[in-house]
Known about the structure:
Layout lengths: L1 E3 L6 E9 L3 H9 L2 H8 L4 E3 L2 E6 L10 E13 L2 E10 L9 E9 L5 E9 L4 H33 L11
Antiparallel strand pairs: 1-2, 2-8, 3-4, 4-5, 5-6, 6-7, 7-8
Amino acid sequence: MTMVGGGPRELFVQDFMMVERPCHEIVAELGDGATALFHQSLGEAEMDLDRLHLKVGPENWPVLLAKTVEVQFGPVRSHGDVTLLAFSWQATGSGSLFPTLDADLELSPVGENRTELTLMGRYHPPGGALGRRVDELLLHRLADATVRAFLSSLAARLAAGAGTEVSPAER
């Protein structure tokens, strides 16, 4: 779901999924390295030196709407039984047409054997007033669908467990 943020240009996207695994197991995987977790989780992720590049885009939309982004990770933070990973992605190449996403991935336990995986992100539509209008009409749906596809791939990998390959059909 996309919402207008505190300023006239900042928009929010948020989605969540349940993973049938204890939260402490997933947090332990995250502790082994966010780059490794994302790289293993997303089929088209590539490492370039110490940088993670991955292809993001909505499922079942034209491939030309997918974009390769470079991911940068912030620190892992814990607040009680909730764990947060800050990250951002920025389009490679002609990035001025695609917004940078600043996000938090939140892991919270739901009982003993389930984890709620929530992505909360912020972006500024590029292109000034025209870009904001195009975002209102169409691009916010693309942003929502991209976040959903990303979260779905990550949740499928986390549900499968550490070191398990996830086929595209399972994502």
